[in-house]
User: Fold these one by one.
Assistant:
Number 1:
Amino acid sequence: MPEACPVCGQRYEPEPGFYWGAMYITFAFSTGIMLVVGFLVYFLLNDPDTWVYVTAVAFFAVILTPLSLRYSRTLMLYLFGGVRYQPDRANGTGRATTAS
């Protein structure tokens, strides 16, 4: 992930250690992925063997990890970083602002 947005210059890490909280959001995303995949395997394959569950959940957890990490950091930035989207500044001429 880049250090700052190439369009507006918004830093993705406003302070050291800011994304420690994003680890908890990533954990919640991973738990949701595992539950959804587990239920889908159960209902679509009519309760297969345990190794099918483990393989399917592990596969999707690994494949979706990059998305989970990016979205958890973005969610943390929007919820607790004071970042607000300003469409008039998205053309590259201005800089993103943070709420005070």
Number 2:
Amino acid sequence: MKIIKSDLHSIAVGPKQYPQDDLPEIAFAGRSNVGKSSFINSMVNRTNLARTSGKPGKTRTINFYIINDSFRFVDLPGYGYAVASKSEIEKWGEIIDRYLTQRENLREVVLVVDIRHEPTSQDLQMYQWIKSFGYTGIVIATKVDKISKGNWQKNVKIIKDKLGIKDTNLIIPYSSEKKINKEKVWQVFEEIIS
């Protein structure tokens, strides 16, 4: 896909702030430090469209990024950040849940994990939730450039087993830095959007 234009469209905590149109959306869920922002930036050839932070748990809003004026990437608040208070965590949960259950523009929810680490119980919970709502169950396994190519299969298998994924093709190893598998991801996304 040729990216001509990408912009932050809207920042929301509730439906009143969601963009009011019928453009298709692909949402990204994942733990606070798995590299969702870096992934979004690398997919649209920008360095700081989605703000990356040295502090995990910084994204506490739903961020809508409009791409080529024809569809949106939606960055959901990262979960699993231990330092946040219980009430804050519950609030993030409500923000995410409301979007995922009520948004008609939503075409797919993609789980983003770090290929170097076994998925957590929260990742499993999120994945089961994604599947229960009838989404495909695509997993982007980031930071693949940080492990040797010889370990890719082994780490993909760990993710597959932990999340109970039947089709290994649903797990795409990805590197934001080296753009590994960028074309492959775009092929998947283009099918979803069209």
Number 3:
Amino acid sequence: MKKLLIKSFFVTVIALLFGLAPLAAHAQCTMCKTQVESSRTEKDGYDFSGLNKGILYMATIPYLLMGVVGYMWYRKTHSLKKTTSK
């Protein structure tokens, strides 16, 4: 039951990160947004539509890495508790 709960938690977190985050977050950084708006008016012809997705991609990677490290840490301490309690 615990394994199912943990797996469903991680699936939910990943679904929220990749599914709902791009809808809720439009132009993460104010400086990036103003830079794109000023560039768009000066240079017609450049396409900056992928900038928001790139910002979200760069912000997601550290959170995923922290999650993986936290999960590995949890597994190691959990297995150590089992071996010491026997």
